[in-house]
Amino acid sequence: MKILSPFLVLAAIICLGTHSPAADAKSQAAEIDKLVAADLAKNKQQPNPLASDEVFIRRVYLDVVGRVPTKKETLEFLNSQESNKRAALIDTLLASDGYVAGSYNFWADVLRMKTNPYASGQSAPAGYAWERWMKDSLRDNKPYDVMVRELLTASGKSYENGAMGFYIRDYNMPLDNMAVTTQVFLGTSMVCAQCHNHPFDKWTQMDYYQMAAHTNGMVGSNGLSNPLLANAFYGRQPTAAKKGKGKGAPMIDKAILGDLSRKEVSRAMNEILRPLRYNTVVEKKVPLALPHDYKYDDAKPKAVIEPTIPAAFSKEGKITKDGEMPEIAYASWLTSKDNPRFTTVIANRLWRKLFGVGVIDPVDEITDSTVPSNPALMTYLETTMKDLNYDMKAYLRILLNSKTYQAAAYAKDLELGEQFHFPGPLVRRMTAEQVWDSMVALYKPGADVPNRSHIIDTEVALRRIEWLDRALNALTPQELGAATKEVVAIQAKLANDVRKAQEQLTEANKSHDEDAIRKAKQTVSRQRKTLDEEIEKVVYTTGFKKFAELAREGKLKEQVTDPDFAQEIQAVLKAKNGKDLEIDEALAVLARQQRSKYDALVKSRAKADAEKLEVDSKGETALLKLWEQSRDSTILRASDLKSPAPNGHFLREFGQSDRELIENSNDEATVGQSLMMLNGKYFKWLANPYTIISRQLNSAKTDADAIDTIYLSLLSRRASAEEQAVLAPIMENKGQQGRDEALWAVLNTRQFLFVQ
Question: What CA–CA distance (Å, rounded) separates 115 from 455?
């Protein structure tokens, strides 16, 4: 074997070192700066000077992690003498859990993601699954084009493939989903063309339907995936009029369902499948027809449309190959490097995330006449994104390392229609999530660590859907038929009970008998709960017990190929000594098993806090325990809370999107926000003596040190002499109360609420 000269080895190491990702990022960032500088000079403008370290650290934390840095993080950065400390900090933040949380908030707004659904056609488990998929994708740094392809081709159960949440979000509304797809991923607003030719753009209604035909077959299903069951309960037989020409009318299998009518079976199955609703997406070749009132000359109303890429987008036309599912071809076309709109939109969208305005703005209303504010820069950003193979972290690293990003912010208001040439990023108001998450970081340590309780709740919600689904589809047609007969009988009895209760309610109202009125109303209101409980007992518990029996006999793997599922059932049975369990009982066991290690961690942490703070009285111990509970159940990063938050919550008051429209958040100031900051419960939470900020203020040796602590924690800098002079009288001779009042004063400044 030939031995290399030490000098050649050293040279190779040097060459490898200079070609590191960080070095590439700096050289590419320098090219961005050159293109921006040329554009500024062309428009007779000057770039802003570099921002101070104090401004930079706060800005980069808010943009990447979604919160202000802690006092400790700020001081470590400000005190560092390393020449490359900004680049090192950028790398650290991009590799952190905080990046996942902050980026999830961004994409949840863009994609209208919900874990707190309040409309039909959506479900919390599907929302949880989509959230987990998105966070995992961000944590794994999944390339953007791969991520989008997975969304556009997602099918299956919520517990198997979280990306299917993309289609569940617009449950069985393929035309609406197409409007979202083109706006988010192609930067084109085609929604007007759903009903008529676009009045202000080139899109026709035919274009819209040709695009939508690609994903028209991505439809929601009721979850009855066992083909024997589906055929027995939803099979169809040819009618006399259509014999041999179509599917015909629904078929009743008399051997299984006896003399039940089609109506009775449909009503019963609708209730039986209710727990699984909105948790399954299947891919089918479903033809899309034009509406009955189509009025243009290029086709007749109700004509079936072939999946086609409109000429306005591409000359390829029909892209689906023989035997290929149209959504597969569509996803490949849309995410291709040869599709310029796809790359332009993501490069521009991420640019706007950091700078406050896009090189093309708005980012999702691009037309043929759209001209970037800096065409050369936009071209370079597109090329860079392609060269990086849609690595979003690598792309952000380049932008963050640029002098353009690190320049002092532009503080003037932009006039409507005015082009921005990026002398520095725009001064922006924090998003609702940034304000909330910053307060979370002031409240407790480890704010970026994913909340374990939320992870367990997500897991249990998805396991419930999985266990219900597997239990249902484990039944034979005969077993489900027998259960259906029982459900029909239960429905009839409940309907009769409700009729009697309504009659009693009428009589009770006449006689003003309050007790009778209350009792009658309770009978009506309990109908839903009673029906759900009975269905779980006669349908799902039956199937679940079949799994339990197989598990006891060691035969579960013969029926279930998922090893995790088999192990969980066996673990649950072991915990209950093999006794039969209903599904909710089994889930409670599973949750306890998963929480045991977490609970031990919480107890250990509480004990350490008590010792550190020298808590000894019963009253102090109770306060500390209450604080420990709230930090894990209420004071969570926005990405770990149900989304959107309910009306009245801090996040909604500060403009969090309702997730009904794309990027529907609001950064406008309101009176409600002022009242919430001035008088709301949230500041009282911060003033709890056990929070991070309270501990730091309490340990400050002088009032001047306490004021610096406030400024370092909220604004990432020490207080000026003038600010010290203003706040000193507030603190004088007031102890902790005075320090809390000073914190409250700074928290309510514009400086805290804005990103400079």
Answer: 13
CA–CA distance, 32 with 573 (Å, rounded to integer): 61
- 3-state secondary structure at position 86: helix
Unique residue bearing structure tokens 């101070």: 52
CA distances from 746 to 266, 683, 726 (A): 62, 12, 11
Better pLDDT: 566 or 86: 86
Three-state secondary structure call for residue 283: strand
pLDDT band for position 17 (cuts 50, 70, 90): very low
* One-letter amino acid of 39: D
Q: Strand runs (DSSP E) across 119-177, as ranges? A: 156-157
**Dihedral angle computed from the Cα positions of residues 478, 480, 483 and 485, in that order, rounded to the nearest 10 degrees:** -70
Q: Sign of dihedral through CA atoms 159, 164, 169, 171?
A: negative
- DSSP tag of 201: S
- Report yes or no: 362 and 187 within 8 Å, Cβ to Cβ: no
State the sign of the Cα–Cα–Cα–Cα dihedral 115, 118, 119, 124: positive
Question: Please, are residues 330 and 215 in contact by the beta-carbon 8 Å criterion?
Answer: yes
Q: What is the pLDDT of residues 249-299, one digit of tens each?
A: 455 677 788 888 888 888 888 899 989 989 999 998 899 999 999 999 999
Q: How far is it, in rounded angstroms, from Cα 397 to Cα 26?
A: 9
* Rounded-to-integer distance, Cα 158 and Cα 155, Å: 9
* Residues with Cβ within 8 Å of residue 564, at least 6 apart in sequence: none
pTM score, whole prediction: 0.90
What pLDDT does residue 428 have?
A: 95
**In the block, residue with structure tokens 């031990």:** 600
Burial of 337 (0-12, 13-18, 19+ CB in 10 A): middle
Q: How many CA atoms lie within 13 A of 687 on its CB side?
A: 18
